[in-house]
Amino acid sequence: MSVRIAVVIPYFQREAGILAKALRSVFAQTVVADLDIIVVDDASPVSARSELAQLPPQQAARVRLIEQANAGPAAARNKALDQVAPGTEYVAFLDSDDEWTEVHLANALHALEAGHDFYFTDFYQLNQSVSAFARARRITPSEHALLPGRSELHVYQGDMQDQVLSGNVIGTPTVVYRYASFPRLRFREEFVYAGEDYLFWLDLSSQTRRIAFSSASECICGAGVNIFSGSGWGTEKSLIRLHHEMKYKKAIARLFPLSARQIEDNRRAVRTLRKSFVADVLHRLMHGKPFREVLFKQWRIDARSALYFLPLAITILLRR
Questions:
Q1: Distance between terminal CA atoms of the chain?
Q2: Contact residues for 135 (Cβ-Cβ < 8 A; gap 6+)
Q3: I need a labelling partner for 260 at 20 to 30 A (CA). Which of 10, 39, 91, 119 fits?
Q4: How far apart are CA 145 and CA 142, in angstroms?
Q5: What is the full DSSP assignment across 101-119?
Q6: Closest by CA position to 95, among listed 77, 68, 117
Q7: Range of weakest confidence among 203-217, 265-279, 285-299
Q8: pLDDT for 210 beyond 70
Q9: pLDDT for the residue numbered 137
Q10: Is 137 left (phi over 0), alpha (psi -120 to 50) or beta?
Q11: Distance of alpha carbon 218 from its chain centroid, rounded?
Q12: What is the pTM of this model?
């Protein structure tokens, strides 16, 4: 069997050895398939070329390297999708600091060749000994029919839009999908800091209900660069995170038809984000931290945030 699978890896890391480790997990796959491995170096401080030099020459030669000015993971993935070779049937995503288990692509191919278009798996998040499915408790594998031939593979039976909106269980480095059926599907680059992967799953699941998943953990997430690592309350990145989460939540209502419950849930989330954003701005104001640039961007997407300033300022003063 020879099935072309494009492996898409956006790359931006500050420590050596991370990408090489991820690539070794690709070369360790048990699947019998023609793999086209595409790495997009997004102006990484540690170059992808130096990482490829750590691999045996025969492995390094199998990697297609694309280099670009820094534009974020969504743009890097899109660059790779634009370069997928003609005849490619499937695309698999892997982040440069993550590792697949050896059977990941074999299981994905089994599910996809059975007629499914979209495959994802359980996984271990950074420094966790309990899997993402078990921790989130948003998906119960026993409620989904088994796929013949594999005890860990299931036919997803539910509303994937509701699943993503109410408690997303899809980890980007676990996804493999039928690229040949959706060749124009791309990540929305304007959501570079939050939501671009969720929106991709929503776009994909709006076009197909043939979804399968593995209850086995087939990916281990690593400790590489995370755009929101250290983005807790009052930190340099916290306002950026809140702004982009707001941008994502407001886009959902514009881009997708929502049920009455989903509309109310989304409105509630927007109100919570408004309060958090304004509270963070007030915190910065009191401690002399910068906030103007992000504030102006926030006004453009949500002018109603301004209504929260006076009530929250009064509340803070009364508590002091």
A1: 70
A2: 125, 128
A3: 119
A4: 7
A5: -TTHHHHHHHHHHTT-SEE
A6: 77
A7: 285-299
A8: yes
A9: 92
A10: left
A11: 16
A12: 0.89
